[in-house]
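Quick note —
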Amino acid sequence: MRIILLGPPGAGKGTQAKRISKKYDIPHISTGDIFRENIKNNTRLGIEAKKFIDKGQLVPDDVTVGIVENRIKLEDCKSGFLLDGFPRTVNQAAALDKILISMDLKIDYVININVSSKILVERLSGRRVCSSCGASFHVLLNPPSKDSICDRCGGRLIQREDDTAETVNERLNVYKKQTSPLIDYYSQVGILYSVDGGEDIDKVFGDICNILSK
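Predicted structure written out below.
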């Protein structure tokens, strides 16, 4: 099974992706995680990507597409995979189609997680991430036991530069302009399904599983 998760920043794609990956035993491929790992290690890719991510902008297509192509050609993706955070533009989707056609593969499901802009800003601007282990918390929805201290490892919790209110709004604007057309792109192919991401996490997961079980 090959799946794409669509949805604006803060829609909960990462959370749902991990659950789907575990239930259906397919690798979860997050371009965001790949970029953050490279940024943390100060690699050439990380340095280049950080320039765009810190401004709430998309990393250039050639960089992102190359990363995804290399990843889905690995052995663990032979039985399927789940893409989280890619594609983000129609150009990236077209590039992915070409890669899959060359491998005699196709995408089976595109799950679109819908969430209102108001909820998204509240979610993202309140998010805090551990600077040591990467665990995620929220000042209102999932606060740590001790203020600014990670429950998992005791590391310091920080607000990512791309989670400030100003940058969040910029990210949402970029999404609406460049990523929303993907909904039409995959609707025309007949593989797009939408769920309400404003619901409880378990409810959203149940809705997604109902779609994948068809």
